[in-house]
Amino acid sequence: MQFTIAALLVLVPAVLGHGLITSPPSRPVGPAIIANCGPKVEQDIRLDNTSHVEGLPELAAKDSAYKAAKCNLWLCKGLQFDDNKNNTQTWTAGQVVPIKIWLRIPHEGSANVSIVDTKSNKVVGSMLKVWAKGYAPGRKESDVPADQKEFSVTVPEGLEEKCASAGDCVLQWFWYGTGAKQTYESCVDFKVAKKPAYLAFRA
Ligand SMILES: [Cu+2]
How far apart are CA 80 and CA 108, in angstroms? Predict the structure, then answer.
């Protein structure tokens, strides 16, 4: 019996968990997600920060501390800007930003990287990266092609007003495993600064 329990404890971390952005730093748990999404959602993410979104709505529904609008569960898994504001990135249009994904367990499907307006929950402009299919194939992290785990995106032109303040926009990595029917989301906080005038003039 004891052996069985020990074996299960060893297995659990390998069964759970899937992926997140490790660089630049993505939204972690903190006091703001507890306040807005409730302690049940926070605990689920804290125990496995790479896990999928499905399952969280059910936990949230059972938690009287859950505030649907403020939590915004389907954006960034409800992870909050206030818990990541010290990691705000400052970018300028045209800047190439390297992204690293920790893809702990693959589930083949589609994925994209986009900028989302956090007030309207709408993607701003075109996707920065799209894998229509064939994202994260295989059974273990090393089966996944390197360019699906490390790639770069270019900061689009024209975001200097919409994304002037950190928290107004996020860079979101979104992955859906078709067979597993699981969604993964991870968000980087940033603001877009105006280019120095002499650079803008030369461009
Ligand atoms: Cu899975």
Answer: 28
β-pair type (122-123, 129-135) = unpaired
C-alpha 107 – ligand 1 centre gap (Å)? 7
Give 64-87 pLDDT, tens digit per residue.
999 999 999 999 999 999 999 999
Whether residue 200 is predicted with pLDDT greater than 80 in this model: the reply is: no
The tokens of 45 are what? 């993410």
Nearest to 92 by CA among 169, 168, 160: 160
Between the CA of 16 and the centroid of ligand 1 the distance, in Å, is 6
Name which of 85, 91, 106 is nearest 33 in CA terms. Answer: 85
Question: What would be the CATH architecture of the domain defined by 2-202?
Answer: Sandwich (2.60)
Q: What is the DSSP letter of 193?
A: P
Greatest alpha-carbon span in the chain:
72
Q: Which of 27, 79, 86, 35 is nearest to 56 (CA)?
A: 79
Structure tokens at 198: 């002499």
Cα 143 from chain centre: 21
Using the mean position of ligand 1's atoms as its centre, give its distance from the Cα of residue 125 in Å: 30
Distance 99 CA to ligand 1 centre (A): 22
Ranges of each domain in the chain:
2-202
Q: Encode pLDDT of 119-145 as tens digits.
A: 999 999 999 999 999 999 999 999 999
What are phi and psi for residue 39, nearest 5 degrees? -65, -25
